[in-house]
Design a protein that fits this description.
InterPro entries: Class_I_gatase-like, Peptidase_S51. The chain has 8 helices and 11 strands. It is α/β, with parallel strands linked by helices and 244 residues long. The chain has a 7-stranded mixed β-sheet with strand order 3-2-4-5-1-8-9, sandwiched between helices. Strands 6-7-10-11 form a 4-stranded mixed β-sheet, with no helix packed on it. The longest helix has 14 residues, at 48-61. The protein starts with a strand and ends in a 6-residue tail after the last helix. The model has no long low-confidence stretch (mean pLDDT 93).
């Protein structure tokens, strides 16, 4: 075993760069030299073969082999034998339903929280690492049996967080308003809004914001706060709901 190790990335592709290009150095630092192969979970997209080819090409260029779980005849066994897990982005509802359908929620939790293997998520893969997918931006195109997710951290994340554009005439709800509506419900945990180009590194009971843009933290009953890369978010790991 060992302490949990998570790299929770807001987005797979940053404007002007290729797939995982903006965070490839973070990935190499996170996985290190002990990991030889990564188990990829492409369930968030419909074309799993094409998705696996994209991910395999990238990880091989970084020096890691990649096995896609959809090519395995026994997904549970694939998770049990994995050295590291990477869940990619796409539709969060589709992803979570497939994790439930393949009986992988418990298995992934065990491998990450008890056995200490590294877990990487991007976008939807970051959403499902949290308590629930209540704060995803995606449409509910399928119906998972629950909105409860892997629970690798005791709070929620909103990947691709967008700030309000004061120049736009569109009068729809901003991301901040939607998160505030979520917090109008009782006993809702903190929500960390990760902007494009930002990621959260979790090592045991330490959580650090990394990347280039920053994040916005929403606590129920409090005004949201702004945070730069390098911020220590460890308190989110020890107190799942600091505001009742």
């Amino acid at each position: 075993g060992g302490p949990r190790r998570l790299l929770l990335i807001s987005n797979s592709t940053l404007h002007g760069g290729g797939y995982l290009g903006h965070c490839q150095k973070h990935i190499q630092s996170f996985l290190g030299q002990k990991v030889k192969r990564v188990l990829f979970i492409p369930y968030a997209l419909h074309d799993r073969d094409a998705y696996a080819r994209t991910a395999r090409e990238k990880f091989e260029s970084l020096g890691y082999g990649l096995d896609s779980i959809h090519e395995s005849c026994d997904p549970v066994d694939a998770v049990r034998k994995s050295e590291a897990i990477f869940i990619g982005g796409g539709n969060t509802f589709r992803l979570l339903k497939a994790l439930y359908d393949n009986r992988l929620i418990h298995e992934i939790r065990k491998r990450v929280l008890e056995d200490g293997i590294p877990y990487m998520g991007s976008s939807a893969g970051t959403n499902v690492a949290t308590i629930s997918i209540n704060t995803t931006n995606d449409m509910p195109i399928v119906y998972p049996p629950s909105l409860q997710a892997l629970g690798l951290v005791p709070f929620n994340i909103n990947p691709h967080y967008l700030d309000p554009d004061i120049k736009r005439t569109h009068m729809g709800e901003t991301r901040e308003e939607r998160i505030r509506q979520y917090h109008e419900e009782p006993n809702t945990p903190p929500v960390l809004g990760l902007r494009e180009g930002t990621m959260l590194l979790v090592e045991g009971d330490k959580a650090t914001l990394q990347g280039v843009t920053g994040a916005r933290l929403f606590l129920r009953g409090k005004k949201p706060t702004e945070h730069e890369p390098g911020t220590d978010f460890s308190f989110l790991l020890t107190d799942s709901n600091p505001v009742n």
